[in-house]
User: Which sequence fits this backbone?
């Protein structure tokens, strides 16, 4: 039998199986790689291998999960070299929506996709990271994990122990109640929109941090600001500049946490924020301004032109405004 798109019945069945599992495959790859674009490429390569395979796997889920994991491990090994040479702080590409859901593992899935957790995963070796993601996040059994990473079950158990130890030592803490997080983030973003600096400041933790991933490709005043006074000053400066380019602030979940997307007057993306909230205060603001990491969010603004326009009347310039030296 040949289907309407020219594929045989078996091929159509495989395509349907693959599409059903695609959200899971992407979610595995993203947590291993920390990159939306690389995860999508890994998923596409997984399909090509599945389509070309003549063997009929006993479990398409196990086969496809193992395939995407192996591809992601190989990509991560080469990506780690590039990340060591990255200009300034490196963050994962912001993820607006995780396509995979599992009510039985909702807590693990939500925590594992946060910026803070993904940065902890960066400290693990590629094999440790893959084992942790498959076992601790998605609940795969050790036989499946072993098959996916090409190691014995005993070796995978040891990798899992090491990975759990590293992750537990730096495990991020977040506000437990999602509704509370969202309410506080809403107040914070509204205060920013209205230029209510007192309102902004009262929502910041005393040791709050604002950290920027610009990758040498966007203007900045610095990579990292720590403490209430310094972060409040940066936010006040941004609040002064943004109206000059008619920028808007769109509340949006980013990596499973409250956040925002900033857009210029044409609706193009300037940057994203991801907010860590604990004890009723903003603990960390992670902002991604590197345009290479924002293409999947939407059309990207010319951030250099936007900041030149914003600063034209202000008479100020962000530090290191030359693209070759900014971080």
Assistant:
């Amino acid at each position: 039998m040949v289907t309407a798109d020219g594929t045989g019945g078996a091929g159509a069945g495989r395509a349907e199986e693959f599409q059903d599992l695609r959200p899971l495959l992407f979610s595995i790859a993203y947590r291993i790689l920390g990159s939306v674009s690389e995860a999508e490429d890994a998923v596409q390569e997984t399909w090509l291998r599945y389509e070309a395979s003549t063997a009929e796997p006993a479990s398409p889920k196990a086969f496809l999960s193992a395939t995407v994991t192996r591809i992601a491990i190989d990509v991560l090994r080469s990506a780690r070299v590039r990340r060591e040479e990255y200009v300034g702080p490196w963050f994962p590409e912001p993820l607006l929506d995780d396509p995979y859901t599992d009510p039985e593992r909702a807590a693990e899935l939500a925590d594992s996709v946060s910026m803070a957790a993904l940065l902890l995963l960066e400290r693990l070796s590629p094999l440790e990271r893959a084992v942790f993601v498959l076992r601790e996040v998605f609940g795969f059994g050790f036989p499946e994990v072993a098959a996916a990473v090409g190691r014995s079950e005993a070796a995978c158990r040891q990798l899992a122990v090491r990975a759990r130890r590293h992750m537990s030592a730096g495990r991020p803490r977040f506000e437990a109640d999602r509704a509370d997080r969202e309410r506080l983030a809403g107040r914070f973003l509204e205060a920013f929109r209205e230029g209510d600096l007192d309102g902004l400041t009262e929502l910041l933790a005393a040791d709050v941090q604002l950290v920027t991933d610009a990758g040498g490709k966007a203007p900045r005043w610095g990579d990292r600001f720590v403490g209430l006074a310094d972060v409040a000053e940066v936010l006040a400066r941004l609040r002064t500049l943004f109206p000059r380019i008619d920028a808007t602030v769109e509340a949006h979940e980013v990596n499973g946490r409250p956040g925002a997307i900033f857009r210029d007057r044409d609706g193009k993306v300037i940057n994203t924020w991801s907010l860590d909230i604990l004890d009723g205060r903003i603990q960390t603001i992670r902002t991604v301004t590197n345009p290479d990491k924002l293409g999947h969010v939407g059309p990207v603004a010319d951030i250099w032109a936007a900041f030149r326009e914003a600063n034209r009347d202000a008479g100020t310039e962000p530090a290191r405004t030359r693209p070759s030296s900014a971080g």
